[in-house]
Amino acid sequence: MSGAIVLALRLIIAIALYGFLGWALLFLWQEVQKQSISLATRRIPGISLTVRYGSGPPILKHFAQPEITLGRDPGCDIPLIDDTVSTRHAQLTYHHGQWWLEDLASMNGTMLNESSVNMPTVITSGDEIICGSTSMVVTLAANILIEPTQRLEKKND
Amino acid sequence: MHDATQSRLLRWAALFLFIQSTILTLSPAVRERTWDVDYRFMHWLGFFAWIALMALAHRATIKQLPERDPYLLPTAALLSGWGLLTIWRLDETFGLRQTAWLAVSVIVFIFALYLPQNLFFLRRYKYVLLSGGLFITALTLLFGINPLGIGPHLWLGCCGVYFQPSEPLKLLLVIYLSAYLADRINIRLSSLPLLVPTLVVTGISLLLLLVQRDLGTASIFVFIFTIIIFLATGKRRVLLTTVLFLTLALVIGYFFIDIIRVRVDGWINPWDDPSGNSYQIVQSILAVANGGTIGRGPGLGSPLLVPVAISDFIFAAIAEESGLVGSLGLLVAIWLILARGLIAALRAVDRFRRYLAAGIVTYFGIQSLLIIGGNLRLLPLTGVTLPFVSYGGSSLLTSFIALFLLLVISNLADSEPAPLEDPRPYSILGGILALGLAAVALTSAWWAIVRSPDLLSRTDNARRSIADRYVPRGELIDRNNEPINITEGESGTYNRVYLYPDLAPITGYTHPIFGQAGLEATLDDYLRGLQGNPASLIWWDHLLYGTPPPGLDIRLSLDLALQSQTDQMLGDHAGSVILMNAETGEILVMASHPTYDPNKLDDQGNSLSQDLDAPLVNRATQGLYPIGTALKPLVQAEFGKQQPTESELKVFYQKLGLLQAPAINMPATFDVENSAIQNLRISPLQASLAISGLSNHGVMPTPRIAMAVDTPEQGWVVLAAENKLVEVMQVKAADEAVLPFIVAGKPYWSYISQTSKDKTTFTWLTAGTIPDWGGTPLVLVVTLEESNSSLAERIRNTILDAAINQ
Fold first, then answer.
1. Rg of chain A's alpha carbons, rounded to an integer?
2. How far apart are CA B358 and CA B313, in angstroms?
3. Per-position DSSP letters for B636-682, written without gaps between them
4. DSSP state of A44
């Protein structure tokens, strides 16, 4: 008798386990689809920076990556040989279809078009960025980016 | 939406654990098949603690991480609750400790949620964190202990609280590598100098772990390092190099490090040494096999037979009690965490978070695969824990901190993932983990279904003797229904009692340590109820209780009255006596002395097998004695006065069945290495079969000792005997052959001979009823390991007279 009752419970336990998993996997599958669509619709527009080290001649640098760091550290993408610049001074990141400038808590701060950068700020062609005593001018590549689809916008709500 | 998903999944998990706890409470009633038992209640403490802690964690995540992944917390909760209840079921002391550790882990988890969720701290202090971790791990070199008392000294602690620093070290390595690689953009393999610091740091960690003989963690370090570098560089040759490196390390380790050799040998050939070096792995596979498809049910298996079932072998314990259904569910739950973790990695807003999430997935995935694969003999055994499930405070705490990091990374408001230059490494990582889990699932199915019947009938499967305690074993009774071997006690304490110990060499014994012997071994399927019962009953009992149905009684052909007379007369003399019905082959008396008392096996078992007098051997069927002239009446009947040639004799012996083992369902032997036919050795059973032709008109029967079995459906059913009658000589020749040997005034013939070998003299007495005798034809063979014709004759007179006058 006890065996039969427990057998019934053992079947219910299996149902509970697979109820958990089945429910989770169904939703997971839907999400994987959404994710792959959203990733497939994204491109990074290139960015060029005309860097002027002190009084030297301007140097043009072109990037096709989503994260660009500026700082005194040689590991940075744009190493700045300038004592007024912090090790990791600022970074340029591409997200939400825009390039953003963000100050990385640098000692002397970062200026964008002569105003101080306190929060991530959208930049555009012709903007001038000043870190310490180094300045650079931004040039964005032609706007080839594909805007997020309707479906993606819905998801982000 | 997220909150509802998480809440619903948590409720499913709670339902699962609630039913599991209920079954665990009821399990003693099922085991003993009565409602009057001590039920288990202690584990409800763990269950309610789990409910409270998970409710708190659920609320805290809703508040602090509104956009988190809603699957990670419920799945981790399911795994940790499942592990917790399994540990409670295995050992209540450790269950209580694990409950305390779960409380600590979840409280740390919740506390971390209320810290600023800025992982920059981890990124900036990567070196400090990792070197701190290494320093603490290094302390185990000096102050390390092992709570179990044996094994590597990998723990720090005192006063009953122990911590294994190599557990969090894995997470610290993931953090360090992610931070280092995220700070250096576009790492290429060609820029090897950039990788040097990571190589140095990983190398130091590895060295430390190797010195500590913590090989499981060391191999996990290698995998974590490789996969994170692979994700950062996207070069598949990184993976290839590591596989080569690990193989090489395994080969070198095999020749120079003992523990590796033992593990690898135990992995390749576990069946060579199932009670020694491969004990753990063999027991683990047996547990999986015992689980079968739907498992024995929580509390109803015997997972405690596997050493360290609470930590290293918890998967085997779960597989035994939840079956393939449960272990596949467990694997899918692990896959859910890994898959959600990978998605969190892909969606991460920067590369540090992406590497960190992928690294944590690697850590969970590889560690789970290593230990489950080790449990299933898919991989060599590495002593690591199963994240969230195994017993172990350090492991549980680290797992929950890693879970916290994954949740924080997955908590994306409306931010957009960092662009992914090359998605292939992530697909490959996902593919490797999925393939690994699939391989583990297939191996589980292999042991649990395909190989299960073979494995469970192994004699070193202790579950059989555990089942014997809960299910009555069939009785052995004599031809007049006098009990010989019976089962006494109640469910849970059933015990075999041997009422007639002098028969021990014949009927044998069944014992949890010394196994089975004699008729108890050869008739085991009937006595255990696996044969003779309806297949549906066997199937149903296995499903409900994991045991066979009650065993069936077997009637033997022995006659206890004659048997006890024989045993009294044989006394301390070494030798054997067989009294057989010459027509049907039924054995009425079978004595083998010296004998032993199987009721005292617990104390004497070890010394018995060393005893030079070999009391365990059934001399009647397994004792081989030089033939000498024992069969003279037969030889004379066949060849007359002339001396037969060697080849003639061989043909004759062949016909008498002396060159093969008699067909009887008990251990019986014959002289395998007979070189010269004159020196042939035969067993008393062979002799009694050979001479039965003399008392039965030249026809030799097949010997029988098990007569009938008492089945539930049809009552006593005759056990089909082979009953192959062999005509060994002409009726007339046989009837005349015994005339010179008839004992005066008795209805039987008799012949005594002596032969010696290696300074021992053996006395053979063969006797039988005369062909004219109207009653049951009988033959008697007395074999004494001494020169004692008078004793042989006295036995003959007493036993044959008694048998004839019956």
1. 25
2. 26
3. HHHHTTSPPPHHHHHHHHHHTTTTS----SS-----TT--SGGG-EE
4. -
CB burial readout A47-74, b (16+ within 10 A) else e: bebebbeeeeeeeeeebebbbbbbbbbe
Cβ separation A24–B336 shorter than 8 A: yes
Q: Which residues contact B553 (CB under 8 A, 6 or more apart)?
A: B474, B475, B476, B477, B709, B710
What pLDDT does residue B232 have?
Answer: 84
Q: Taking Cα atoms as reference points, which of B787, B707, B767, B794 lies closest to residue B579? A: B767
Closest CB to A67: pick one of B74, B75, B351.
B351
Q: CA–CA separation, B710 vs B704, rounded Å?
A: 17
- The answer to whether B341 and B360 have CB atoms below 8 angstroms apart is yes
Beta partners for residue B626, in sequence order: B681
pLDDT of the residue at B712: 87
User: Whose CA is closest to B185, among B233, B153, B230?
Assistant: B233
Query: What span, in angstroms and rounded, lies between the C-alpha atoms of B159 and B97?
Result: 13
pLDDT recorded at residue B144 = 74
Give the whole-angstrom CA distance, residue A141 versus residue A95.
Answer: 15
pTM, to two decimals: 0.76
Instruction: Report how far residue B80's alpha carbon sits from residue B104's, in angstroms, rounded to the nearest whole number.
Output: 13
Amino acid identity, residue B314?
A: I
pLDDT in tens, B54-77: 999 999 999 999 888 899 999 999
DSSP character string of B72-117: HHHHHHHHHHHHHHHHHHH-HHHHHHHHHHHHHHHHHHHHHHTS--
- What is the spatial distance between Cα B471 and Cα B299, in angstroms, rounded to a whole number? 17
ipTM score of complex: 0.76
3-class SS letters over B186-244: CCCCCCHHHHHHHHHHHHHHHHHHHHCCCHHHHHHHHHHHHHHHHHHHCCHHHHHHHHH
Task: Transcribe B457-478 into DSSP letters.
Answer: TSTT-THHHHHHHHSPPPPEE-
Separation CA B615–CA B508 (nearest Å): 11
B150 touches A: beta carbon within 8 Å: no
Give Cα separations from B17 to A20, A134, B21, B118, B298 (angstroms): 12, 63, 6, 35, 11
Question: Residue B198 CA to chain centroid, in angstroms?
Answer: 44
- Answer yes or no: do A16 and B19 touch at CB < 8 A: yes
> For B248-259, what is each residue's pLDDT tens digit?
888 888 888 777
User: Pick from B5, B22, B545: which is nearest to A9 by CB?
Assistant: B22
Contact partners, residue B89, CB within 8 Å, separation at least 6 = B24, B40, B43, B95, B298, B299, B321
CB < 8 Å from A in window 43-72 of B: 71
Cβ of B325 within 8 Å of Cβ of A14? The answer is yes
pLDDT along chain B (806 residues), means of 10: 85 95 92 87 95 96 90 95 95 93 95 84 83 84 71 69 84 91 67 75 82 82 90 84 86 82 81 79 91 89 86 93 94 93 89 92 95 91 90 93 94 73 86 94 94 83 84 92 91 89 91 86 90 90 87 93 92 92 91 91 82 87 89 84 84 87 86 78 92 87 90 86 75 80 87 87 92 88 92 91 85
Contacts of B298 in chain A (CB under 8 A): 13
The pLDDT value given to residue B722: 66
Residue pLDDT, tens place only, B455-498: 888 877 888 888 888 889 999 999 999 999 999 988 888 989 99
10 Å Cβ neighbour count for B183?
Answer: 17
A146 falls in which pLDDT band (50, 70, 90)? very low
> With an 8 Å Cβ cutoff, are B416 and A7 in contact?
no
Q: Measure Cα distances from A77 to A91, B125, B190, B280, B702 in Å.
A: 9, 21, 18, 54, 94
Distance from CA of A67 to the nearest CA of B (A): 8
User: In terms of CA atoms, which chain A residue is nearest residue B542?
Assistant: A3
